[in-house]
Amino acid sequence: MEKRLLLTLALSLIVLLVFQKFYVKPAPRTPVTSSVQEGQEEKAAGAGFTVQGTPAPGRQEKSSFPSEEKETEVRTEEMAMTFSDIGGALTKIALSESGTGREEKEETLIFAETPESRPFLMRSPVVPGLDTAKYKAQQGAGYLEYVFEEPGVVRITKKYTFHKPFNYIDLEIAIKNLSSRRLPFSYTLTGPAGMQRSSKIAGRSFLESDIMIDGKVWKARSVKGAQERAGDISWVALKNRYFTMMLKPLGQPGSVVLTEAPGKNLTTSIHSQRHDIVPGGVTRDEYLVYAGPLDEERLAALGHDMQAIVDYGFFGGVSKILLKVLRFFHTVVRNWGVAIILLTLAVNLLLFPLTIKSFISMQQMKKLQPHMQKLKELHKDNPQKLNKEMMELYKTYNVNPLGGCLPLILQMPIFIALYQGLVRSVELKGAHFLWIKDLAKPDAVPLPFSLPFLGNTINILPLLMVGMMVLQQKISQGAAGAAATDDQASQQKMMMVMFPLLFGFLFYNMPSGLVLYWLTNTILMTGEQTIVGKRLSHT
């Protein structure tokens, strides 16, 4: 029975990996429309302005960017941001990484590979070329301002205000009517774009778009062309394995568009509502921008349900509890590897009463083996009678045939929840432990030569795990298989090799922090089984 549960766990892990790689929450395909509202062209023309239709999202016309541009870098404690005077837009965000057990370095979060995909570019049917125009820059304490003016028509001011805590920016867009007539004005603002991909796990890329509309998160990892949705838009975001960039409109925009970008990337944009601006009047749209780690507490502090972007999957509640315990241990020992070992100990202590019952059940099943074998021989031609007699045997000796599987059954959701948590835990990124340089990646020990299929590195932890699983299977067979038939003994020998190899294959390229958990758990279970088995055999 225990072998079947091991197979079930292995199959569950395979299903989990395949599900995460291919499943994306379906996104309704809404026809893409122009952001210019009906009748706006006529009204604007009547006001003395020429209005050109906005290119459909995903099919934007190529603009001629000036060859010269002036870039401005703004640094906070955790971010380095680069802005351009062409379009007054963002070109790059790099996040600093430092902490215990980590090398201090910068990681690029946002980088616009093409000028047309820079975050915070504006396009408008009223003033063509806003995305390629040169803006005048003015920098002050804690802010950066870009101004563009079309004489006699409109003045557009983009003001970025920077905040040291929580990695967030306030963006204010002010539009002033410089004409003597009412100005109907709408625009498209490029949102999060140019998100850099994280390292893959089991072939899975973590790049994803999350957009909260009408209180629900619309998720997408790819789109064909462009998809547009309208509704109560709370925020628009792109995220990878560890980080996110989020744009929160503080007003209510008209719609949001998700567009495919070169290199299987994604670009988001927001269509504003139409503003009817009186002569000399000013209208203002405000946005909150966050760029940083997928940290639930940090995002919750910003409000607006922004923490909803942190998603640990089906067992998310269990993942959050395990991560809280893991962080607590880290505050004590100041090492993430040791913290994972302590977490494994805590989980084993929690399940220890069930583990004892499991071992007792295995010993009881061992004692029943001779009786079970006799029943099988006696009723080999009558399966129904055999099953009835077996159930009576279990009842007589007060044995639960599933009792030996309970700890493993409970380990499955814990393992899946921990997997979901550890692969997304930014704290493990770059964390060292013993020979492991990064607990978020395989341990990859360099070799002085190259091996077939493996290359010039080898992952030690999965091999240690395979060895411990073989030892555990051997002890388990010794405890429960003394009375096994020749066929059963042959099956047990095959399983003793098959299961560890299967798990070794599945875990070989997993994050070393996860493999460390399973290795530690296997060591503890093996030790407990040995000690308890010896005591029970003398009773």
How many strands appear in the DSSP assignment? 22
Large-scale geometry: elongated
In what order do the strands lie side by side in the largest sheet? 6-7-8-9-20-16-15-12-13
Question: How many independent structural domains?
Answer: 2
- Ranges where pLDDT stays below 50 over 5 or more residues in a row are 1-8, 18-62, 98-103, 480-484
Give me the number of helical elements. 10
Strand content: 25-35%
C-alpha end-to-end distance:
24 Å
- The second-level CATH architecture of the largest domain is Distorted Sandwich
Averaged pLDDT: 79
Structural class: alpha+beta
Q: Percent of residues in helical segments?
A: 25-40%
CATH topology of the largest domain: Beta-galactosidase, Chain A, domain 5
Determine the oligomeric state from the structure.
Answer: single chain
CATH class of the largest domain: Mainly Beta
Largest sheet: 9 strands, antiparallel
The radius of gyration is 30 Å
Give structural notes.
The chain is α+β, with helices and mostly antiparallel strands and 539 residues long. It has 2 domains: 16-27 and 70-311, Beta-galactosidase, Chain A, domain 5 (Distorted Sandwich), CATH 2.70.98.90; 319-537, no CATH class. It has 10 helices and 22 strands. The protein is elongated and about 100 Å long. The model is unreliable at 1-8, 18-62, 98-103 and 480-484 (pLDDT under 50).
